[in-house]
């Protein structure tokens, strides 16, 4: 065991008993390299974060230029900082639909927290409805939205007033009433194993929220920034949220998140009381500069336009007797196996052979494919070839 690996285990807090422990030396484009020079083709993007690949030159340049000008100067919302203003203006123009006020935070989970506070403050209501099988973050408020009692009971008491509906179940929409402050859902359920909306489900949620005066919060923390084939997934389904949550792919590898709403709605944080939500490092100029560079690449190139073609290539190649189903929305994909017991061996062997995939929180039979959007057709062939060879070897062992 290397010295760094030992120190990692001894001093860096762990979240499971079986971390991957890849000793990262550098990363570039589609690849992560360990200390021995071994290359790993990244089919995971750090859970849909590195959408432009690792160390994209435009992002690197933006970070370096901003560091040379200034970093932290004052807590969020007090100083006029050019990266914040430029990003908020460009994203507002790109989104439309009245989503013209952006509150920068540090992460997706903090965006969830801020949105919940805003919804309760604006409506004067307490009840929050989320979807069963959804994941919105690991702060106590965000965890309160989870439906799996076996997990959340370990952290009781969680946030009161939370109820659940089933994704794609229209009958459950009757649970949204005049008592409901907000409905928060993912336009595509990510951690459930890529569950897409059916039969105009999102439009029906939007309609029910309008009928009851309930705010609709769309969590696009994983689905945003081109991942599903549009800049944001809700654009595929012809609706707009009252509050949009963004993070992960936003920063091109830098830590940042935000929630976006109409400025009139967002103004509830400025009075009765003022400082309704504050954050010291939210909107850090270096992170926002990286996010601005990322957004400019996405809207000025054909990366997003090519997503559906790459999705089709992946699905056409991922055919094997051990694969039960491939579910996808753009480059957001779940490969479900006929035998869930094989999943750890598939993921571990792929990693040993130089391909990074990952698990889902709420689907124990599927592995995740969410490569950087820059992936080439040749890299798709290479990565799927590794997966299929792993499955071939497993199938041979089973015979």
List keywords for this structure.
single chain, 399 residues, alpha/beta, Aspartate Aminotransferase, domain 1, Aspartate Aminotransferase, domain 2, seven-stranded mixed beta sheet, four-stranded mixed beta sheet, 13 helices, 15 strands, globular
Walkthrough of the structure:
There is one protein chain. With 399 residues, the chain is of the alpha/beta class. It is built from 13 helices and 15 strands. The chain has helices spanning 3-11, 45-48, 57-69, 82-95, 108-123, 140-143, 149-152, 201-212, 263-266, 285-300, 307-317, 343-352, 377-398; strands spanning 24-28, 31-34, 39-42, 101-105, 127-131, 162-165, 180-185, 215-219, 243-246, 257-261, 323-328, 333-337, 355-356, 358-359, 366-369. The strands form 3 sheets. Strands 4-10-9-8-7-5-6 form a 7-stranded mixed beta sheet, sandwiched between helices. A 4-stranded mixed beta sheet has the order 1-2-3-13. A 4-stranded antiparallel beta sheet has the order 11-12-15-14, with no helix packed on it. The radius of gyration is 21 Å and the shape is globular. The mean pLDDT is 96.
Largest sheet: 7 strands, mixed
What's the gyration radius in Å? Answer: 21 Å
Shape: globular
Compute the number of helices. Answer: 13
| Helix fraction bin | 25-40%
In round numbers, the mean pLDDT is 96
CATH architecture annotation of the largest domain: 3-Layer(aba) Sandwich
- Reading off the top of the CATH hierarchy, the class of the largest domain is best stated as Alpha Beta
The CATH homologous superfamily of the largest domain is named: Type I PLP-dependent aspartate aminotransferase-like (Major domain)
Distance linking N and C termini: 36 Å
Beta-strand content estimate: 15-25%
Main β-sheet, spatial strand arrangement: 4-10-9-8-7-5-6
The secondary-structure class comes to alpha/beta
**Which stretches of 5+ consecutive residues score pLDDT under 50?**
none
According to CATH, the fold-level topology of the largest domain is Aspartate Aminotransferase, domain 2
Order of helices and strands: HEEEHHHEHEHHEEHEEEHHHEEHEEEH
User: What's the number of structural domains?
Assistant: 2
């Amino acid at each position: 065991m290397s010295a760094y690996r030992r120190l990692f285990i001894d001093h860096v807090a762990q979240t499971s008993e079986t971390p991957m422990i890849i000793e990262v030396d550098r990363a570039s484009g589609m690849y992560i390299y360990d200390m021995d020079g071994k290359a790993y083709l990244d089919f995971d993007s750090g859970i849909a974060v590195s959408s432009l690949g690792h160390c994209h030159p435009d992002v690197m340049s933006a970070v370096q230029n901003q560091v040379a000008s200034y970093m932290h100067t004052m807590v969020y919302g007090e100083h006029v900082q050019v990266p914040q203003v430029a990003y908020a203006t460009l994203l507002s123009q790109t989104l439309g639909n009245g989503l013209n006020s952006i509150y920068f935070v540090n992460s997706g989970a903090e965006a969830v927290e801020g949105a919940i506070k805003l919804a309760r403050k604006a409506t004067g209501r307490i009840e929050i409805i989320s979807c069963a099988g959804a994941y919105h973050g690991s702060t106590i408020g965000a965890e309160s939205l989870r439906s799996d009692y076996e997990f959340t009971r370990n952290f009781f008491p969680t946030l009161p007033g939370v109820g659940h509906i089933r994704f794609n179940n229209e009958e459950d929409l009757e649970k949204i009433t005049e008592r409901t402050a907000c409905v928060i859902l993912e336009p595509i359920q990510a951690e459930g194993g890529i569950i897409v909306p059916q039969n105009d489900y999102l439009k029906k949620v939007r309609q029910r929220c309008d009928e009851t005066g309930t705010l609709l919060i769309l969590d696009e923390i994983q689905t945003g920034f081109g991942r599903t084939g549009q800049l944001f997934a809700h654009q595929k389904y012809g609706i707009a949220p009252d509050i949009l949550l963004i993070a992960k792919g936003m920063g091109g590898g830098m830590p940042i998140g935000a929630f976006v709403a109409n400025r009139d709605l967002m103004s509830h944080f400025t009075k009765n009381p003022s400082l309704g939500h504050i954050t010291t490092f939210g909107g850090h100029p270096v992170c926002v500069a990286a996010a601005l560079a990322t957004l400019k690449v996405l809207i000025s190139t054909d990366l997003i336009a090519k997503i559906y073609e790459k999705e089709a290539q992946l699905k056409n190649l991922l055919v094997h007797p051990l694969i039960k189903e491939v579910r996808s929305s753009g480059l957001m994909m779940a490969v479900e196996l006929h035998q869930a017991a094989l999943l750890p061996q598939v993921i571990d062997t792929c990693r040993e052979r130089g391909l990074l995939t990952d698990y889902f929180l709420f689907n124990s039979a599927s592995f995740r494919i969410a490569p950087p959007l820059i992936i080439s057709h040749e890299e798709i062939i290479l990565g799927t070839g590794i997966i299929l060879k792993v499955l071939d070897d497993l199938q041979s062992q089973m015979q």
